[in-house]
């Protein structure tokens, strides 16, 4: 049995952004983070006509069919797995049913990682309540949720006062007993606030984009295919 060859280029991880932008560099932000952290090739695309992303039930409902359609495009173009880069995990089950490749929701991925780091998880997001997908995974380990003051949409995090408001809300969660923080908005990755929170508050902080990338790193279809062929030949 020979060692699997790495000569062929790896198929990319498709990153679905739910915030519409014409700025290709901005759309690729989460994909670049995953590439730099895990060495995975990515291709990033955003859904149309949602300039403020997903921030309430109505915007989530509008986004769901767009996510499924974009997932089908990315799968058809050769993506080996997909990441829905939104902590609400919008259309996750519908997307899994629509494509024949693994689909990872950033919210449930972050919750799974948080369970490995602490017992009392505080959830920091842009809604008054923690996303149901996150709560479902955390179960009894969920301790409280918080929304930064003045933040109601992911684009609000880009305001000059955004990082300070995030720190204030996160500190409140730690004071209430959280031993681990979960960032329940992928826009918090965009503003790069995780290192600041960990330095100031002294607790692990789980980034949903990094968590999704971690799970994607466990799925390498190209390597598996080569290994299967070599095993059969061996």
UniProtKB/TrEMBL annotation:
Family annotation (InterPro entries): Asp/Glu/hydantoin_racemase, Asp/Glu_race
Protein name: Asp/Glu/hydantoin racemase
Lineage, opening ranks: Bacteria, Bacillati, Actinomycetota, Actinomycetes, Kitasatosporales
């Amino acid at each position: 049995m020979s060692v699997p060859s790495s000569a062929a280029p790896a198929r990319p991880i498709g990153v679905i952004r739910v915030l519409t932008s014409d700025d290709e560099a901005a759309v690729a932000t989460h994909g670049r983070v995953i590439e730099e952290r895990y060495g995975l090739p990515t291709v990033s695309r955003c859904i149309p006509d949602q300039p403020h992303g997903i921030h309430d039930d109505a915007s989530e409902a509008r986004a769901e069919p767009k996510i499924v359609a974009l997932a089908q495009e990315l799968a058809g173009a050769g993506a080996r797995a997909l990441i829905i880069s939104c902590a609400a995990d919008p259309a996750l089950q519908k997307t899994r049913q629509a494509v024949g490749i693994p689909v990872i929701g950033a919210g449930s991925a972050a919750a799974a990682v948080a369970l490995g780091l602490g017992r009392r998880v505080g959830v920091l997001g842009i809604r008054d309540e923690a996303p149901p997908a996150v709560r479902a995974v955390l179960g009894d380990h969920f301790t409280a949720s918080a929304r930064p003051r003045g933040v109601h949409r992911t684009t609000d995090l880009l305001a000059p006062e955004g990082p300070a408001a995030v720190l204030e809300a996160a500190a409140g969660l730690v004071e209430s007993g959280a031993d681990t923080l979960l960032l329940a908005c992928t826009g918090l990755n965009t503003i790069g606030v995780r290192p600041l929170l960990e330095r100031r508050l002294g607790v692990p902080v789980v980034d949903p984009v990094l968590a999704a990338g971690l799970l994607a790193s466990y799925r390498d279809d190209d390597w598996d295919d080569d290994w299967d062929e070599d095993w059969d030949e061996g």
